Amino acid sequence: MALKSLLPPNSNNRNIKTLTPMVAQERIEELGQSVGYQIRLEKKLPRDTASICFCTTGVVLKKMEDDPSLSRVSHLIIDEIHERAIPSDFLITLLKEVLKKRTNLKVILMSATLNAEEFSKYFDNCPHICIPGFTFPVEQYFLEDVLQVTKFKFFSDRSKKYFKYVRQQSEEELEFDKYILPQIKMKAFEKQYDKEVYEQLCNSESEKLNLNLVLALLVKICQKDGMAILIFVPGLTDISDLNKSIKNSNLFDPNKYLIIPLHSKMPTVDQKQIFNPAPHGKRKIIISTNIAETSITIDDVTHVIDCGKIKMSDFDVTTNTETLKTRWVSVANADQRKGRAGRVQAGICYHLFSTYRKKRLDLYQKPEILRTRLDGTILQAKILQLGKVNQFFPKLMNPPSAESLSLALDLLKRLNALDESENLTPLGYHLAKLPMSPQIGKMVLFGAIFSCLDPILSIATSLDFKDAFQIPLGKEKQADAKKRELGKGFMSDHIVLHIVMEKYEKMNNPSFCYDYFLSSYTLKLLKKLKEQFMGYLLELKFVSDLNPKNIINNVNSGNISLVKAVVCAGLFPNVAIAKHDRRGIVRHLHSPDRQTRYEFHLKSILTVNQPFPSPLVVYYTKVKTSKEYIHDATMIYPLPLIFFGDQYKAIRESDNFFITVSNYLRFSSNFFTYQLITELRNRMNWFLEYKITSPGVVDWTNPSDNLNILQAVVELITAEDIGEIDSFDDEDTYDLI
User: Fold this and answer.
1) Cα–Cα–Cα angle for 67, 72, 75, rounded to 5 degrees
2) Rg for the chain (alpha carbons), in Å?
3) By three-state DSSP, how is residue 453 classified?
4) Beta carbons within 8 Å of 724's beta carbon, 6+ residues apart
5) Is the peptide bond before 615 cis (omega within 30 degrees of 0)?
6) Is the pTM above the cut of 0.85?
7) Contact status, residue 633 vs residue 599, Cβ threshold 8 Å
8) In sequence order, which ranges of 167-222 are alpha helices (DSSP H)?
9) Which end of the chain is more exposed for a tag (fewer CB within 10 A), N or C?
10) Per residue in 380-405, pLDDT tens?
11) pLDDT digits (tens, 9 = 90+) for 606-652
12) Which residues form the Helicase ATP-binding domain (predicted)?
């Protein structure tokens, strides 16, 4: 039997590639004998029996599609299980069922901060073992200690206190008034700290992130010699603001201090300094988000400042929107941050929240399955033949709500991935086999059928993984300008992603990445991902080889109008309507039913004041922070929506002709266009359904009746996009029901 070891779901692929050769070396053998690995874009498998394979959770789930009982695995070790990512939660639920049939399978769950009792209970009170490890001692100080030392005073505005009772208080403010404030007032009688400290703790501003307090504490720490200082803040804006404050302060001589911001969107070349010892006579100050909690290790840190806040994504089922809010860390987060200070010697951790607030912290953050969309997870359950949603998902350790499951099912039905009985359709089967979200998967399949695959793959990989744009501190405006330059005239963030990859692959010049603030490392990964996606398409028989640039897959790749239409086909029903002023400049956007208002996020090239020839927009990412922001968008004309949207109806009212899509979008038309579009759509849908059911490469160089239908659709979409036809009456085109 093969002995296989599983690394954590969020493990850095580099860590796996680094660790595996070390294990092989310790066994005095070459990699690929008894030790191997498999990650998303690469593998070096060990021999079939008596071997160890390091891999990610996604790899194991993929294996279970063909071998549900993992019959060739004797031992499964899952590390960092406390992170509660969807793949790991999904896997342990499957393993619980597998263990009922395979009593000889040994499953070991590991974590440094695991809630062992909860997992033990889930696995029918299985035994759990605590193995103490050596760590250097870390002194902990809390907000009251920091205030005592720094004498810092929070801003207090009397008008704010008045308005607190006029406006609705937030949940955190109510919690502070009800639970924390009474404890502080009671403790004040013990006089453990100065009277002024208790006064400051009673100020609700003490519960908010205050970068001036961080700066004051930093000054105190730097009065004594020491090694590197690691500061945890919630997000990129906080990193930028604190970085500016430190550099603008005359207390931090650049000859004595090396300030290093750490964020996934910042240039990796600059961040390499994090792991190197500071130059002689300098002290490192690292400003980071929670990425430095577990994902990376900085050996020379002895002081940690924990601001106590974290940016956490969530999913609001009432508005069907992802949210990104700053909230309190969990106890597990705080412990991880503290541990960063004791890697090489004794250290100190300053938590910028009070001991009273600590008592109110959650032990762990909410599991990912309770705070994200579930459409992809449901498809995975379907491909594993786990039955109806209401049969499998209640078996999870923390089952998601019925509302979030219902929203995901509704989307999958609108995408035609599931039928009304929750069965996989032929399209749904293909989408479940692709390692990407269902909407991105549909876009890729349509890109193959319409022979514009290479640009669609560039867009799909960037949306599914991440785009290559970086945000260098102090050069944000220049980076935005360069991004807009790439997208000039296209009215599409998605086309920018294609142009970036196209130029990178053609030029292969480091100066291009430097000039346009792009990560060459990310672009290399995206290129590999495109090749991997081609492998999946080859397995599904939608392409004939692994070359994404093969001419047979790219007959229409130069037709940007079609590429935008295929993007629309995938992203639907994510549609927004732009509201213009008299000059055609967009003031805001709203949902098709007019119930929700959106804004373009600053990262979108569509934020620039410019006329919109069409108010129709499709998008992939919509996140609610202070407002609901659309992060990436493409302006489209009506025909892509009409050809690829759902709930299509052709209506004749006396001498007036209308087409409705998605129940809310209504387009008026002349009789000829009304007839032509209805006939073309019906025949196109028949052919698309046939190609999905019986996959094969569509040869655009070989004329046929079916190809003529697709070409007619492409010609209409292209002519509309470049302004050669006006299919609809301007006044009534976007008359919303």
Assistant:
1) 115
2) 28
3) helix
4) none
5) no
6) yes
7) no
8) 171-175, 181-187, 195-201, 211-221
9) C
10) 999 999 999 999 999 999 999 999 99
11) 987 788 888 899 999 999 998 999 999 999 999 999 999 998 888 88
12) 25-132
